[in-house]
Amino acid sequence: MVELRPHLDADRVRANLARITEHVEEARARSLHGASSPVEILAAAKYVPSDALPVLAEAGVTLLGENRAQDLQEKVAAHGNLFRWDFIGQLQSRRVRAIVPHVRMVHSLGSESARSELERHRAIWQPGLRVLVQVNVAGEDAKAGVAPRDLAAFIDAADLPIAGLMTMPPLAGEPEQSRSWFAALRELAAEHGLQELSMGTSQDHVVAVEEGATIVRIGTSLYD
Q1: Can you spell out the DSSP letters for 36-62?
Q2: pLDDT (0 to 100) of residue 37
Q3: pLDDT recorded at residue 179
Q4: Whole-model pTM over 0.90
Q5: Is residue 78 within a helix (H) or strand (E), and if so which, with residue range?
Q6: Sign of dihedral through CA atoms 140, 222, 89, 119?
Q7: 134: burial class by Cβ within 10 Å (0-12, 13-18, 19+)?
Q8: For a designed S-S bond to 58, which of 10, 40, 63, 110 qualifies (C-beta 3.0 to 4.6 A apart)?
Q9: Which domain does 165 fall in, by range?
Q10: Residue 91 forms beta bridges with which residues?
Q11: DSSP per-residue letters across 180-205
Q12: Which CATH number belongs to the domain containing residue 45 in this structure?
């Protein structure tokens, strides 16, 4: 169950964003794999009801990621001009048409059916749409994404602007436990000449940046 944050304080969010940005840039600076440009901090919008989104804009948040197509449509209709929008939830083929007119990036392409729908609806993409392939790096049965062994064939078959990869590692008690999975994703991206790496959340984003993340998806630590 997602715990919504209907009563956000702009000053607190601004301070949290500054702290997270500082930690991210420190991690990038000391990393052997750090991104060549500043890491993007994406705010996970599923935690925030639509009428609270202007508080995030006031606090300096510029990039939002939404998990559900219906919520994305409603929030873009109300506040679309305040942010850049990404889709970060599981990409279902039946929802592609509702998503692609609104987002600059899809983080979660993980099935052949969704790939076909993305290709079929090219005419309604937002201009410049980029796509990340979700990789199930740990081979978890309950988790979506392309298996590492199938990634090359999946990319080769896609008539899409594949910009990079995304992963969600297994749940872990300590951030350090996710390092090997982030490193595995970085190595896969390098093999395929891909630049973008969407990995790391509130719990483990520092480790993700040390391993080469270019986008981190932040929720609770931005709003608490």
Answers
A1: SSPPEEEEEGGGS-GGGHHHHHHHT--
A2: 83
A3: 97
A4: yes
A5: helix 69-79
A6: negative
A7: buried
A8: 10
A9: 39-223
A10: none
A11: HHHHHHHHHHHHTT--EEE---TTTH
A12: 3.20.20.10
Q: Which of 71, 69, 70, 131 has the alpha carbon at shortest distance from 106?
A: 131
Q: Which two tokens stand for residue 81?
A: 């001009």
In a domain, 79, yes or no: yes
Distances (CA, A) of 152 to 6, 120, 166: 43, 21, 15
Which residues fall within 8 angstroms of residue 143, CB to CB, at 6 or more apart?
A: 136, 168
**Tokens matching residue 124:** 């309604």
Number of folded domains in the chain?
1
- Pairwise CA distance, residues 183 & 168, whole Å: 12
- Tally the residues of the chain: 224
- Phi, psi at residue 24, to the nearest 5°? -65, -45
Residue 215, phi then psi, degrees to nearest 5: -140, 130
Q: Give a yes or no: residue 114 inside a domain.
A: yes
Asked if the structure places residue 1 within a domain, the reply is no
68: phi then psi, degrees, rounded to nearest 5: -120, 135
Taking 50 as the pLDDT cut, the residues of the chain under it are: 1
Q: Is residue 58 part of a domain?
A: yes
Taking a C-beta distance cutoff of 8 angstroms, is the pair 219, 46 a contact? yes
